[in-house]
Amino acid sequence: MTEKKIGNIEAIAVVLTVMINHIILNLPKSIISTTSSGSIINVIFVTLIAFIIVYLISQLLKNFPSLDILDISKFLGGKVLKFIIGALFLCYLIFTISIVLRSFSETLKIIFFPRTPVQIIMLLFLLAIVFVNKLGFQAIARSNLFFMPIILFSILFIFVANFGNYTVQRVFPLLGNGAVSTFLSGISNLFAFGGIAYLYFLPPHLKEQKDYTKIAFSAIGVSGIFLLMSVTTLLLLFPLLTSSEEILPLYLAARFIEFGRFFQRLDAVFVFTWIISMACYLSLALYFATNIFKKITNIQYSKWVIGLIASICFGIALIPQDLKQISFLENNVYKFIILILVIGVGLGILIFANIKNLILQKKKGLSVLPENNKSYERS
Amino acid sequence: MLKNTYKYVSLIIITIIVSVAFTGSHSVQSVDDLAYAIALGIDIAEDDNLEVTFQFNIPSANGESGSGESAPSVIDSVKANSIDSAINLMNAYVSKEINLSHCKVIVISQELAQKGIAKEIYSLMNKVQIRPDSHLVITTSTAKKYIESVAPSLENLVAKFYEVLPTSGDYTGYTINAELGEFFNQLLCETCEATATLGNIVQKKEEENTSAEDSSSGGTEGQSNESVSAKNGIENLGVAVFKDDKFVGSLGTEETLAHLLLRNELKNCNISVTDPEDSTKKIDLYLTSNHTARINVSIVNGTPYIKIKIIANTRISSIEDITKDVSDERISKIEEASADYLKELLSNYCYKTSKEYHSDIAGFGRYALKDFKTNTEFEEYDWLSHYQDAFFEISTEVNIKSGFLLTGT
Amino acid sequence: MEKNSKNFSEKLTNQLNNFFNKSTQNEYRFDLPDDNSNNSSSSNNLSLEQMQEIEKISEVKNIFPSLEVSIEYIKVKYNTLINSDIILREFTLSVRNRQYKALLLFVDGMADSKLINDNVLHPLMLRNRANIYDGDQEQVVSEGVANNITVRRVKKFNLENYIMSNLLPQNNVKKVDTFSAAFNGVNMGNCVLFVDTIPFAFDIDVKGFKQREVSSPNNEIIIQGPQEAFVENIRTNTSLLRRIVNNENLVIENVEIGKLSKTKCTICYMSNIASSALIAEVRYRMNNLEIDSLLSSGELEQLIEENYTCSIPQVLMTERPDKATKYLYGGRVVVLVNGNPYALILPATLADFISSPEDTNLRFQFANFLKILRLLAIGITLLLPGLYVAITDFHQELLPTELLFSILSSRENVPFPIIFEILVMEISFELIREAGLRVPSPIGPTIGIVGALVLGQAAVSASIVSPILIIIVAITAIASFAIPDFAFGFHLRLMRFAFILLGYIAGFFGVGIGLFVYVCVLCSLKSFGVPYTAPYAPVTGIGENGFIVNPMWRREKRADFLDPKRKTSQDHISMKWKYK
């Protein structure tokens, strides 16, 4: 079990990976397409909401130290609920892996390998992440820690190096498509913080339980900053992007960078770092997927589970016919899965579990914890 | 033992499959098998076809030197109905596969540009190989002739020449550095119109025939249109102005200066104004880089009202009465005269773009954005069609920071 | 019947051979018996188990009281009839005027004969005051008076004690009661004295074999710092350590490894610094090695490291006692193997392989510059050829146009694809390196001239390879020499080929995936329970024990991933003269 414990900074990097990779993929573009020039305000607004949600989660989890959402749902509704929740999250992870894998591989095919079948690119990815998963969670989390600064730097670099190309006035009109779309329907952009899903599964892996809030807050904070950065880059660089562009938006932004006459073609280097980052993300997602699978099926010997889930993902990733479907899945379906499952169901489970805990404690005649009440009322 | 064998065999099989799959793209993508087009020219041919001209660099066959010195280039052109089919057709002619990843310049003839080039630009932008920082040149002649007349004298590589030539606008102010990606963005943009570099071939015998016509309208005083690079056989005239995707006119060197000033893209340049005391003489002023155009746009009764204020810091670089002490009074007179000169320059530019070309190439529209609450309001207003009704209020101020830098004041 | 037929067939074949193939008739052939085919038939080819069984039967543990029997046993054990350097010196020993038969056993060349003469044979054989003393047979040990009765505790005359305490003026004498212990001593260069009637023997330290002097290190050369290196002899090495450590907390434990060779190894650590768990683990691993012989620290390294599938060294090796001492004070364990001038330092982390012993001697700015340079060297060694293949095959758009055209023109007449070209050059470079290493030193420079100059120049001018590629290979080679640790450099050289292949297969994608997997493997490694990538992943006190060298006054904490007993190595204010 100690093999699965990670330190605080690794944990932050794990959660961060999820969000950063979606930033690389398509997330800023889909935010801009819903809120246009209001995106900057929207991102700040959504980040604040994400902070509130994460605060709620960490408060709600306080009564269940070292338990993840599966254990909590078992506490709440027995094995059946555990199985249902586990299966839902498993589906979510498999879906994410497949979509991310497919969409990134398609992009790679466009950028680098026009003549290579996309299956082969996906296969190479899967081989790598299956192999890495056999090395264990710690290895993935630690190597992720190594790559995370480089990836963050790449986004920062794109943001800074494009300063000369910005048209600052594009932040106007400030409200974009209107207050309603920025603040009300814009809440759906909360799906940018899909890394919250991993927060539910993190507690058993932490060395320091008490730092959970700190970890969650730093991860959300950093990814909020980088989301803001990338949205700003795209917003100021391009006239309102049409959503028909299939290629990584940050890649397009990277192509505009020039430093003198010698260093003007840095985009391949960025793609290089993003390949690594994508591999990190996929292997982490695969790890959590196998972990959930193991938990809901109580399988002890599990080396083959990794391969099994990877091949399922491979199969699912092949289903979409064309890029249009992929981007639909990526922007719309993924969005609602996150909103409903991660934020809706996840929080619901936690709240009800806390109520049950409260009732049990009352029965035992213990004093009621004040935070429990508060968090219940607020939500 | 058997398990290990199984493992190794499967590993080898996977390696072979993967490498074969990738080498599918590999065998043709290798650096040896590609021909790098460094310039692409697009002309209009008969019956609405395109004539696409490619310029290739031939690496020097002398392998030992390894520097590719004085590399000759090959120019070839095909006629096809689109750029993509032209590339395909060209691939059939040349032995190596054409790669556009080092295409430095895209030349489009004025004739084609007048008909609209959105389709061509879009298909170029859609290619991953073509860089958004390729330069975009609209020629008054055909693109093929333009490419053929390129004869760099200071560089060995034609590619380098293409790269360096358009950047001179930063310090001369006579030409703009138009890039493909920027042009594409400007096409999509709701607050501005597109511009490109305007290029021309220099006929060595009969100088300045085509160029003078285009730019004489604005320049009452100032420099004559000397060719920027007469030796090269090609020159950059100024700015090609587009309305939507159609070429509608051009700006001469002085208007280009105004254009760059208003877009805050000018690093520094020389301007020469008439001496306020002696109208036969000229004073050269060096415009230093710390100048900004303050532009304020408001919508008054549905028409744009554009306020422009430019404060320029200059140095006197040459003046006739160098031996005399330059009095404060004289300096303020020069300041006034040059401010007037700039003001005229700018107002000519503004009215020409707005009234003649109806094209907001300076991108005033972005300053108007803040007057609107939401995007939909802005879209409904339709800035680009209202630009022709715009009013301008231009104020200029020139500060002479120092003169006679070396001789002392 | 069968024999006859066999003979017949042999004859037949001989005849046939004679007829067809005359020349082979007198040719001498020798084959080792194939032990798989007839395992149990002949007594010569005993299986290991059988051999051990036989040995067990004939094995005698304790030394016989009778010298005659002992001598016979020794003769059998040492094969003295055919073994030339085993000396059995039989003589008569006189104690208190009594004569005992005695035997001195030693190996010629290993024991110092002058020491034996002066300090063993001389006092035992010649008449002197000690052995002719013929006083009381009993010795008074203590005397006490109680109730007017004198109680004397007397000790009976004890031959072995007498010999030990009175007759052997040699400093290091041990009593051994088993043959195996006695033989151990003999094998190490001691001489063993057997005396009739005594059921044990005296192991007298008279080692005097020739050995290399302490000299300056050959392979870990530094500019500023001590110029001493370990030698083969383990005692010399421990003395070097002791001298530099200069503290009584240095513990040097003995471990013998190898069922047959019984190689002496030592575990050295600072008892007040190194973590007890770490020491116990080292001891545990070294005590549980079932091998016949251990000849070098390189072998030991492979036996005690955790992961043997990947080629990354997980134990640091050094020939410098000062480096070993530095790590001892840092809370690590040093293992010495007799007969090998390389000490093992464990556990080791990735950052240790990048640091040179000179780093702490230099100003921290210099050291950090060198460290960053080495990091660059690692990157180049590992990735440059792979990236070159990837860029030229997949990502030409990354190159500046001028560079692209110069690569193109340099490759214009080269017939081979890039991958083939680079593999040929890398392999021939490895060949030159290996040949340069193995060649007798007088011809050494020739290899360099022929290999590098003639071959390279000729290959380029014959357009077999492109000059750019030669530059790539040369930079890679130079970078690989800049890596301070030999084993780590070797590992990178090996991994380089993997990255070339990956770059060829899938360009940046392949290299990226390869790098990801490589780093994951690095992160999964552990060296004696310490994560290989510490202190960066997991993050533990990067500030003072990371890759970057701090100024001397700021090296306050010992690496916490080693869990040392003393956490700090300096006071908070180390320069007391400056800041009170």
Describe the structure in your own words.
The complex is a heterotrimer of chains A (379), B (409) and C (580). Chain A has 379 residues and is mainly alpha-helical. Chain A has one domain: Amino acid/polyamine transporter I (Up-down Bundle). In chain A, 73% of the residues lie in helices and 0% in strands. In chain A, α1 (8-25) packs parallel to α9 (212-237), α2 (27-35) crosses α9 (212-237) and α4 packs antiparallel against α13. The radius of gyration of chain A is 21 Å and the shape is globular. Chain A starts with 7 loop residues before the first helix and ends with a helix. Chain B is elongated, with a radius of gyration of 26 Å. Chain B contains 14 helices and 14 strands. Helix content of chain B is 34%, strand content 28%. Chain B has helices spanning 2-29, 83-93, 110-115, 118-125, 143-149, 158-164, 169-172, 180-188, 210-215, 253-262, 328-357, 365-368, 375-381, 383-386; strands at 34-44, 50-57, 73-80, 97-99, 105-109, 135-139, 195-201, 234-243, 246-251, 269-274, 282-287, 292-300, 303-318, 391-403. Chain B is an alpha/beta fold. In chain B, the strands form 2 sheets. In chain B, strands 1, 2, 3, 4, 5, 6, 7, 8 and 9 form a 9-stranded mixed β-sheet that branches. In chain B, strands 10, 11, 12, 13 and 14 form a 5-stranded mixed β-sheet that branches. Chain C is an alpha+beta fold and 580 residues long. Chain C has 3 domains: 60-204, no CATH class; 234-348, no CATH class; 364-531, no CATH class. In chain C, 45% of the residues lie in helices and 14% in strands. Chain C has helices spanning 2-20, 48-58, 67-78, 113-125, 129-132, 159-167, 179-188, 234-245, 276-287, 297-304, 321-329, 350-354, 364-393, 401-410, 418-438, 444-461, 467-481, 486-524, 542-545; strands spanning 86-95, 98-107, 139-146, 149-155, 173-176, 191-195, 201-204, 250-257, 263-270, 316-318, 333-337, 343-346, 526-527, 530-531. In chain C, α13 crosses α18. Chain C is globular. Chains in contact: A-B, A-C, B-C. The interface between A and C is large, with 41 and 30 residues.
